[in-house]
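Pipeline run #58 for the internal structure catalog. This entry was flagged by the ingest filter as a single-chain record with no existing model, so it goes straight to prediction. Upstream metadata was stripped on purpose; only the residue string is passed forward. Reviewer on rotation: M.T. Logging verbosity set to normal.
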Amino acid sequence: MSYERRKIKVGKVVSDKMHKTVTVSVEWRQPHRIYKKNVRKWSRFKAHDEMDRCNLGDTVRIVETRPLSKTKRWKVAEILQKGDVADLQPGEISVEGVDEAGREFSEATGSE
């Protein structure tokens, strides 16, 4: 495939858990066929990241390439913007007045 005819897409990295591979979510809009309102849709692409530079939340430009595996047909061309995503688990966040099951309780009595 010639370089001029390769497709180029811009999206956000939603997963970087694989070795040398990232999952990129690309948003696109399409008018509803009856109501004509623009509807947002997302496509997810597996992209090759040779140096493992991409992290979760990064905005990247991906370029179509030859098949690299069963599902990988894209390559990360460049990182446009580094993302800042907190690495917190839901159990690490503490909220005053709520127990671990999510029920509210009174601090004076210690019960519900």
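catalog note: The domain at 3-85 is CATH 2.40.50.140 (OB fold (Dihydrolipoamide Acetyltransferase, E2P)).
catalog note: The chain has one domain: 3-85.
status: ready for reviewer M.T.
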